[in-house]
Design brief:
With 298 residues, the chain is of the alpha+beta class. Helices cover 46% and strands 12% of the residues. Strands 1, 2, 3, 4, 5 and 6 form a 6-stranded mixed beta sheet that branches. β4 and β5 form a beta hairpin. α4 runs antiparallel to α7 and α11 runs antiparallel to α12. It is globular.
Length: 298
């Protein structure tokens, strides 16, 4: 199961948890880029800040931190997780079903929770969770339609991280394969990316691979381009995997932390299939044994 991307190592959450209020939004932030003078002896911490989110888009988070007079502006790709200060009972119930893995049961409640008009960034995230739930409950047509609707405006990396991409090499339901084939030429690059990822497990994956190659050089959609490049690794032979393993892992680690989990799942499986047992085990430990904040909704 694809868990949330925000890995939080024990002891590395910063003590800078800013004056929490009962109704404050809490935001988990990945470390900022190291400066040349910063120490490299210790890992940089994930930090948690509290306040009122003003906006969140593909470029930045604006948050009025408790005690400040003007909003802080933070790079959007540092946002790992958000615990909103106020969540309705309907949304909480939907997220609990999702967290329990009841994707079929969560789909309708997630969509219904949008009628309560949460903030735009929250609507986008809930809609993407609904798309993910639809994919996981074999409702591929619904998943792709939700992605299509979402891709009409820029999305935060925090939202794009939940695109219902098939990162692992598992056979998709026949209905999902059919839906993906029908939308491989969709106007939405995000829809084409998701559809191509599903079709990689079909007998004729050549059209999907060709579409991923096109998306991977799309300078207008850099996140989708990086995802497409990673997905192309699914077609590599064991000798190709062994040759490129270090390079692929380095490229994945250069992604913002919030976008790394899907590509790392892919690499874990490819390393294992190629007989790179030590490398596969390291990724497995990173993905499965590192404590995470999976669904902090209560």
């Amino acid at each position: 199961m694809l868990r949330l991307i925000c890995c939080v190592l024990i002891g590395l959450v910063s003590t800078e948890v800013i004056a929490q209020a009962d109704a404050a939004d809490q935001v988990w932030l990945a470390p900022s880029k190291r400066t040349e003078t910063a120490s490299r002896w210790y890992p940089q911490p994930v930090t948690v800040i509290s306040g009122t989110i003003v906006s969140l888009d593909n470029k930045q988070l604006a948050i009025l931190v408790t005690g400040d007079e003007v909003p802080r502006r933070i790079a959007g790709d540092r946002v790992l997780w958000i615990r909103p200060g106020s969540v309705s009972e309907k949304e909480t119930a939907a997220l609990e079903l999702f967290a329990d893995g009841d994707y079929a049961g969560a789909l309708r409640p997630l969509i219904d929770s949008l009628a309560e008009r949460p903030p735009v960034w929250r609507q986008q995230w809930l809609s993407m969770l609904a798309a993910y739930a639809a994919k996981r409950s074999s409702r591929g047509q619904i998943a792709l339609e939700l992605v299509s609707q979402l891709d009409t405006r820029p999305l935060a990396p925090y939202v794009l991280a939940w695109l219902p991409i098939a990162w692992e090499n598992q056979q998709q339901p026949a209905a999902s394969i059919e839906a993906a084939a029908q939308r491989l030429a969709d106007p939405s690059p995000a829809v084409r990316l998701v559809a191509a990822s599903w079709l990689l497990s079909s007998p004729n994956r050549s059209p999907a691979a060709a579409e991923l190659k096109r998306i991977s050089v799309d300078a207008n959609r850099p996140v989708l381009a990086r995802f497409a490049e990673s997905l192309m690794w699914r077609t590599a032979t064991p000798p190709q995997v062994a040759e490129q393993a270090s390079s692929w892992q380095e490229k994945t680690e250069q992604l913002p932390m919030v976008l790394q989990t899907g590509p790392l799942l892919l690499l874990r499986d490819k390393f294992e299939a190629a007989g790179l047992e030590r490398e596969a085990e390291q990724l497995k430990l990173s993905l499965e044994l590192t404590p995470v904040i999976p669904y902090p909704i209560k």
